[in-house]
Amino acid sequence: MAHIKILFQSLILVLFCFVKSNAQEVLSLESAVKIALENNYEIKIATNNLSIEQVNVAIGNAGMLPTLTANVLDNNSTQNSTQIRQDGTIITLNNAKNNNLVYGVRLDWTIFDGLRMFARLNQLKELQKMGEAQLKLTLITRISDVNAAYYDLVQQQQQLAALDTTIVISNQRLALAQNRFTIGKASKLEVLNAQVDLNTDQVALLRQKELYANGKILLNQLLARDVTTDFKVIDELQVDSLLILSELKSLAEKQNPQLQAQVINKKIAELQLKQIKAARYPTIRVNTGYNFNESIASLGFVAQFQARGFNYGFNATLNLFDGFAQNRNEKIAKIQIENSKLSIDQQNLALNSQLSSSYQTYLTNLELIILEEKNEEIAKQNLNITLDKFRIGTITTLEFRTAQLNYVNAKVRFSNAQFQGKLSEIALKELAGTITL
């Protein structure tokens, strides 16, 4: 009866875990990515930075628009004054008040600066593209992180299921050992060994539950939501086995955000050189304004003065000699363009190297998945045969335990091979800039 009680308790435990897991939210990968896009702090910061670059793209920010200013100047003074005129007349006045009031508007407009303003506007547009590339990089990186964390949980969940299975088998073994001991066909040692192995399996299950719980916390953190939010993930892990290296390289040349950023940097450097060269041309500014001027004096030949009207003019400047600073600035700008070209070549080489290396790992993992799947099937068949033999007492407990552990390890290795294959797939799609957004 004891072994029946143990089996009944095991079934109740498995059923309780099944019901509890079904009651949890099943979080799909698509939902996890959507939540990350809405909540993740780094994505929000990158989005705000892009908004700043978009606002900066304006003709006024490039210096193409005039500036209009209003000004008011009011000067007052109180003085004790003495005037001696040419005819010898002396006029003295204490607390003589003087007031000078000037107000008006002024417009200044740079109408030519060697085309610097146009290069500046184009540079602002390229900076916006840089912000878009940085946002795309942040999106791809965070989505890649979510994918990796999600499929790690799938793997952990599969390993939990494998350990749950071995707990059931260990309970069966303990029940059979106790039954055989009761009828005198086995020693107490066999029962104790079965109990020790069951305890070992329960410890492994607890450790696995800890890893699973920590994996949930990590994924919740990436989703920027309450880290105690409970959920479960899907049970299956499928690896895309149709990736082709040449296609990935072609896509990476067009879509990899880090490579795009280097190309944009080169354009920015070229536009910077245009702005520097603009200093070789004259700068022409026009100005106009309307002012009102009023002066009141307690002492003097003019007691009150008023004037109002337009003023206008232009200003032209041309740099004739600046200690060869212009030449130095142009040389430095050209070197920066050359550096940006080298950075593009360097990024291309690094990208191709990463793709080739990751693709080789991807192919190896695909082969390992096939091999480990076969190993799991063989280990399962071996366990079934061993279990039947153990029930009729034709094999030792050590042989049974070996078959049991081989089965569990085979399931764990198969799950890990699938996970490593998925990580390789994610890495390749991240480098190619094609990971699903």
From TrEMBL:
GO CC list: cell outer membrane; efflux pump complex
Gene3D superfamilies in the record: Outer membrane efflux proteins (OEP)
Keyword Transport: yes
Gene Ontology molecular functions: efflux transmembrane transporter activity; porin activity
Pfam family, one: OEP
Keyword Plastid in annotation: no
Domain of life: Bacteria
Subcellular localization(s) per the UniProt record: Cell outer membrane
UniProtKB keywords: Cell outer membrane, Membrane, Transmembrane, Transmembrane beta strand, Transport
Chief subcellular location: membrane
InterPro entries cross-referenced by the UniProt entry: OMP_efflux, TolC-like
Family membership noted in the UniProt record: Belongs to the outer membrane factor (OMF) (TC 1.B.17) family.
Protein name (Swiss-Prot/TrEMBL): Outer membrane protein TolC
Species the sequence originates in: Flavobacterium micromati
